[in-house]
Amino acid sequence: MDYTHVQIVCNLEKVAKGEILIVAGEISGDLHGAELVKNFLKLSSDYCFFGAGGELMKSEGVELLSHVNDLAVMGFSGIPKILPTLKALKRNILNRVRKNPVNLAILVDYPGFNLNLAKALKQLPNPPKILEYIAPQVWAWRANRTRKILSYIDHLAVVFPFEERLFKAANVPVTFVGHPLLDELNLPTVQLKDTNDPKSAILSSDVDEPIQNPILALLPGSRKTVAVKHLPIMIESAKLLINEFPNIRFCIGCAPGLRQHLEGLIHGQPIKYELWDDSRKLLSEATAAVVCSGTATLETALIGTPQVIVYKTSSINYAVIKKLIKLPYVGLVNIVAEDKIITELLQDEFNPVALYRAIAPMIRCQIIRDHAKSKMMQVRNKLGEPGASRRVAELAYQMIK
Questions:
Q1: 193 domain residue, yes or no
Q2: CATH classification at residue 143
């Protein structure tokens, strides 16, 4: 059988299958989308997937019309740069669906683009059913998106329990599926002291000794524009910490593609810094962590590492965020806990001295670390059971049937 004949056979097999559109616009969405596709194909091999994503989705057989590397954006000021790319992707998807209508579109996070795409898909002569996986954060800002979801989304799969209450109240068909991080992380069993028991605290203080070789994990962010604002402040704070903890190790978590950039930021510094490509392994070994606001703060909490949440952006972005956001805190851990259980240092509050004052007690005192871990375990318990991707795949399968 020659190569041309093999191609024809493969194409005929693809045509015989139904197609499902799946769109993820960020690295995290690529991971969630890949797990979803993998689980869906266990339920049925009668469909193939196309859309937008990254290498993980591609490895699961998704035909990519656009790559997440071309779609990622940070802050409001970065949106204009990728608008032509987004318009081209939307046009390509709609043209594809007009020629070959699909029964189902799965939109993974990336709400600015995906809600706009959902509206356009619903205006087609033969619109697909639409499943949104990971809800827009309407509970933080832009409440008008609730109405958009109600209009364009057939079902919403949410990863936080309070989101299910919120969207049910707005009459949006919704299912809480648990958080995908519970599947992605190999979570250890954590034995904790009862930090609310005064007797336990007193007994602990009698034997509490400083850690001989503490490890401070520094997670400055997953993008260059973020790391360049965060890491220099962390470095200046490290100069204060090393005076009190001479044996401390400063370990920087490197997001994919950032190693060379981070090496440039620490070059020539008087203090030694270690670069770790596996941030999750680093967090599991760290005494405490300084973490850029985002999903990484939730990962840190689930692993059980005491942390301080930090974030600094441009004055323009911060002015817009401050005007729009309606929550008393920005860290996902605090939002899920519905309480400020983790210190947040934002914008001007994020400075070397403030960071030193927030981190040093965690390194000094086992009681403080235990108390932080206990609070974070409560967050873990709120996020449901492992199996989020499987549950979303089952939802998708039922919708397409």
A1: no
A2: 3.40.50.2000
Closest C-alpha among 321, 297, 307, 317 to residue 359: 307
Residues 135 and 243 in one domain: no
Q: Is the same domain home to 174 and 228?
A: no
Q: Looking at the structure, do residues 142 and 272 belong to the same domain, yes or no?
A: no
Tens-of-pLDDT digits for all 401 residues of the chain?
443 443 443 444 455 579 999 999 988 899 999 999 999 999 999 999 999 999 999 999 999 999 998 886 654 445 677 788 999 999 999 999 999 999 999 999 998 899 999 999 999 999 999 999 998 877 655 666 777 777 899 999 999 988 998 889 888 999 999 999 998 886 654 444 444 443 333 333 334 566 889 999 999 998 888 899 999 999 999 999 999 999 999 999 998 888 999 999 999 999 999 999 999 999 999 999 999 998 899 999 999 999 999 999 877 777 766 666 667 788 889 989 989 999 999 999 999 999 999 999 999 999 999 999 999 998 999 998 999 999 999 999 999 98
Bridge partners, residue 344, by sequence: 309
Q: What are phi and psi of 50, to 5 degrees?
A: -145, 160
Is the distance from CB of 48 to CB of 33 less than 8 angstroms?
no
Q: Is the same domain home to 371 and 391? A: no
Instruction: Report the domain count for the chain.
Output: 2
- Residue 84, token pair as written in the block: 């032509």
Q: Is the pTM of this model over 0.85?
A: no
Given a contact cutoff of 8 angstroms between Cβ atoms, the answer to whether 302 and 183 are in contact is: no
Q: Which residue has the tokens 């989308």?
A: 33
Residue 213 and residue 150 share a domain: no
Residue 252 falls inside a structural domain: yes
Residue 192 in any domain: the answer is: no
| Residues of the domain holding 351 | 198-382
Residues 225 and 170 in one domain: no
